[in-house]
């Protein structure tokens, strides 16, 4: 594997060029190749993504990815209507669950955000309809997206707007950096580096994608 820190790209043993951050680890690379940046409209998946980005704060995403099945089991498959009914007994249960990140504030935040998601669905019809309203306009995105651009911009005007609106609605652990990572993961932006084999594939998917708005 050849790592190109200046470009943000690596060439794997198979000769395929991709974003460097998966480090050619099998599970991480699969996430990069098959999931990250692909447009998502399923409400449970969207809720999962934004909650796990909150849990990731201060940790590596790989840590969260490798615990994701445990998180799904602990939080009812991220069915936010079910999670919104969690009570103090569930909090205590989750604090004892070694398979997840046992952070009381983040656990309670997930339960709170589930209740806010129920309200959001009632207002907009779906979480997808709400979130996709914040997709950046073409003029807000760089023409050429490289590693230096990504490293220098952990937030964007769109992620700041979305973060502020979520906080007004009572959501927590949704700062602009966390929200930007969520936007990248759920395909609201295509932040695969120029030269990554996934970038054109994801761009085609985004062009064909029918926005739920």
From TrEMBL:
Q: What is this protein called?
A: DNA-3-methyladenine glycosylase I
SUPFAM superfamilies to which the protein is assigned, alphabetical = DNA-glycosylase
PANTHER family, per the entry? DNA-3-METHYLADENINE GLYCOSYLASE 1, DNA-3-METHYLADENINE GLYCOSYLASE I
| Gene Ontology process terms (BP) | base-excision repair
Q: Name one GO molecular function term.
A: DNA-3-methyladenine glycosylase activity
Which source organism? Allorhizobium borbori
Lineage of the species this protein comes from: Bacteria, Pseudomonadati, Pseudomonadota, Alphaproteobacteria, Hyphomicrobiales
Q: Would the keyword Endoplasmic reticulum turn up in this protein's UniProt record?
A: no
| InterPro entries registered for this protein in UniProt | Adenine_glyco, DNA-3mA_glycosylase, DNA_glycosylase
């Amino acid at each position: 594997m050849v790592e190109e820190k200046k470009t943000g790209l690596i060439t794997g043993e198979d000769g395929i060029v991709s974003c460097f951050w998966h480090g050619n680890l099998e599970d991480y690379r699969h996430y990069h190749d098959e999931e990250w940046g692909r447009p998502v409209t399923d409400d449970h998946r969207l809720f999962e993504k934004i909650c796990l980005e909150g849990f990731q704060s201060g940790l590596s995403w790989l840590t969260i990815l490798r615990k994701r099945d445990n998180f799904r089991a602990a939080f009812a498959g991220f069915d936010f209507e079910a999670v919104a009914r969690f009570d103090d007994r569930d909090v205590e249960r989750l604090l004892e669950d070694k398979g997840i990140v046992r952070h009381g504030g983040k656990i309670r935040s997930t339960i709170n955000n589930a209740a806010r998601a129920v309200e959001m669905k009632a207002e907009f019809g779906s979480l997808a309809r709400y979130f996709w309203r914040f997709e950046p306009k073409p003029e807000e995105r760089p023409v050429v997206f490289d590693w230096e651009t990504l490293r220098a911009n952990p937030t964007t005007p769109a992620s700041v707007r979305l973060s502020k609106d979520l906080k007004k609605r009572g959501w927590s652990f949704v700062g602009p950096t966390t929200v930007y990572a969520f936007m990248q993961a759920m395909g609201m932006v295509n932040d695969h580096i120029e030269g990554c084999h996934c970038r054109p594939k994801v761009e085609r998917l985004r062009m064909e994608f029918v926005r739920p708005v």
